[in-house]
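Hi Prof. W.,

I finally got the Alkylation response protein AidB-like acyl-CoA dehydrogenase prediction working! I wasn't sure whether to trim anything, so I left the full sequence exactly as given:
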Amino acid sequence: MTTPPVRARDLGFLLHDWLSLEGLLAYPHFQDHGRETVDAMLDIAGRVAADTFLPHYKAADQHEPHLVDGQVRILPAIRQALAAYAEIGMFAAPFDAEVGGLQLPHLAYSAAMAQFMAANVATAAYPMLTMGNAELLVRYAGAALVRACALPEIQGRYFGTMCLSEPQAGSSLADIATRAVPDGSDELGPRYRLFGNKMWISGGDQDASENIVHLVLAKVPGPDGKLIPGTQGISLFVVPKVLVDGSAFAGQRNDVVVAGLNHKMGYRGTANCLLNFGEGAHHRPGGEAGAVGYRVGGVGQGLPIMFQMMNSARISVGLGAAMLGYRGYRLAVDYARDRRQGRPLAAQKGATGGPVAIIDHPDVRRLLLAQKAYAEGALALVLYCARLVDEERHGPAEGRTEAGSLLGLLTPVAKTWPAEWGLAANDLAIQVHGGYGYTRDFDVEQLYRDNRLNPIHEGTTGIQGLDLMGRKTLRDDGASLAILRRRVQATVERARRLPALADFAHALEVTWARIGALVGHLKAAGDDAASLAQATSFLSAFGHAVVAWQWLDQAVVAGTLDVAPDAEEAAFRSGKLAACRFFFETEVPRIDVWLGIVGRRSDLTQTIDPAAF
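And this is what came out:
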């Protein structure tokens, strides 16, 4: 058995000491579970991740999915790993018992999933998408579709995708052209024939599952036979690769064809496909043209429904990015402890001793501290959001609205901050390894390549910035930001009582006061276009301020635990306090720079002539 990819104490501190998992387990919905149940699941997940996901990490990068007679073939080790994932109940972990789930808190599931993502993020992408697909169906689809498609996904027999982007549209979903023509109905509900192309479909085809359930956005023609422009006409359809029980064409191969594979710089073990719907000459269910699909929700409701899966996927992207940064950081620590090179500055003149471990050099420690602050800060952020999911769905009624409001505000941050700064951690991990870092003999170069995709996955950093500044800030009534600031202030008040943290508490209070004042200024100015031009800088500042708050909150906990530590635990707590100090001394000053850029509302990017480039 290999070593689990995540240190148990790192997860234990976040779950039990900081996020109070026991408080969630007191909710009636989770009454069948206790700390022992969760810890057992985390232990099993760590062992399976280490034994089945981690061993083929490099092999999956070197042996990409490929097409054989129109079927995508993936590395056999991926199939075996996903079977092990299903066997321990991970597909079922967060689902309700009534659909075959284990009914674990989303926080506990996320901590378990973190270990699989740290071990092999490309293989973990298959269940991540499948579980988001099943969650959407359970929430919005009819009972027959849930029974035919979602339940086999929860069992790990079927895998799922989401099919949004098109070659000509990219992230602009208003411009999709896939159309869905009514075709009657059967036991599964309103039936349609779909025609169009979808691009960048992760898991779009593979040979690891019995079936693939595609969730497809398409437009239903209006009475004049034309597609409605914009997003209003977009609907959502379930399009199985092989038509399922309840369909008039059950057992027949659907008209979904892999037109090609995208070859990426990272996540190479995840098959990424261009799919054609309704263009196959050999797969015509019932002898008619078009891919058979079943509508979920009403006509024109596709985008709001799909946003549930998209937002879940955004937080999952953040978790994956955090774990890639985390694993690179742990590898850098191990390397820095083992690699002996150079001598301490004070001993270089006339030194006769041998080289020291590079972790003894201050600049290497700086690199490691930065990685720790980024990677562990990113993991904390995503797990905090996972707890909000549990509070919103299953907590006391009076707190659900607040949790949902705060989760909505933090979602673009939870996707983007780990993606940007987890990548920065991977960059520093390469630096610690020196020349070895950019060779394929070490994992850190692949971790960097994998993580470089995450600032683009599920909406680029720029798109997340527009979401945060536009919908979540300028066009919001301020309630969500007020909730966040109350929670920040509560941390400030606790930190003020600890002498080692008092200065950081003051700095955090000043930072959030400045953010509040800037938001008020931008709203009063009224020119959203000028403000939105600086949305990415606002997202950078806001994200750093959120992570600063969470580092201070963790430091308060680490500084007030009432159990006397042994040497190992004392070192762990010291590391938390050092990372908090590093973040406030080195990272928080960046916030003022970003806020200054936003406040100036420069028109340069709006007015520069494209010819100037």
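The chain is about 55% helix and 10% strand. Does that look reasonable to you?

Thanks,
D.
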